[in-house]
Automatic annotation (TrEMBL):
Residues 75-168 form the Methyltransferase type domain. This is MET27 protein. One of its GO terms (molecular function) is S-adenosylmethionine-dependent methyltransferase activity. Signal peptide: none annotated. CDD domains: AdoMet_MTases (cd02440). Pfam families: Methyltransf_11 (PF08241). The lineage of its organism: Eukaryota, Metazoa, Chordata, Craniata, Vertebrata. InterPro entries: Methyltransf_11, SAM-dependent_MTases_sf. Gene3D superfamilies: Vaccinia Virus protein VP39. The gene is Mettl27.
Amino acid sequence: RGGPGRTGMGLPAAVRDQVAAVHRGSALPERLRLYDGWAGRYEQDVAALEYRAPHLAAASLAFAFSAPRAGARLLDVACGTGLVARELHRRGFRCLHGVDGSAGMLERARSTGLYQELRLCVLGREPLPAPAEHYDAVTVVGALGEGQVPSTVLPELLRVTKPGGFLCLTTRSNPSNLRYKVELEAALGQLEQSGAWQKLLAQEVEYWERATTEEESTQGTGYISGVVYIYQKCPVPHLEEG
C-alpha cells in the first residue's frame, strides 16, 4: 500500500540513512558536504518520502498573495534543487531568486531554468545577499529544523521583505524536531507581539512526509506531521508631513 498506514520502514535504507544523516545536527561543513553529495539523488529520494511541503507551502502562499504574481519578486531561501520554485512557477510566480548553502544543490536548481538569480549563502552564518525591503515574498521550506537553519534567522528574513510582503515558513512536528518547533514558535510569537509582522496562517498537516523510523511516526501512521506558517510584514507607518 502506498497510502497512509504504510510505515517508513518500507523506505529504501539509503533514503532513511540519508535523511538521518542530514538531520543529525553535524557540524556545518560536514552537513553542506552531505547536501552536495545528495544533490543528484535528492529529488527521487524526496519523492519516495512523499514530501509534500513544497506543494503545501506554494499553495498557501498563492492563496494569501493578492497582488499580480508574474511581476512579484520572491526569494526562495534554502532553495535546494528547486522543488519550491517549480510549485511557485506553476502558480504564476515568475521572478524567483534563490539562495542555498550547498553548491551542489544550487547547480541542480540552476539547471531548472526557473530562477532569475541564484546565490550561495549559508543562512545563520551570513546575511542574505539582498538589500532591505527587496522582496514581495520570502519562502523557507524544509530548512527550519533541528540541526538545520537556526530560528535566530527570522529578523534577517524580515529585513529583505517589503512592508506588506509575505513570509512562508515550514517546520516538522515529529518528536526529534519538537524542541526546535517550540523555540521557533516562541520566536515567531515575539516578532508578532513586537508588531513586526502578523500571522495569517499556521496550518498543521498530518501527512507531511513518510517517517524514517517508527519513533518519528505520528501515532503509528507511518508519516510525520508538519506545519505551514504564513506571516505578513507589517507596513511601516508613514509620518505625516507637518
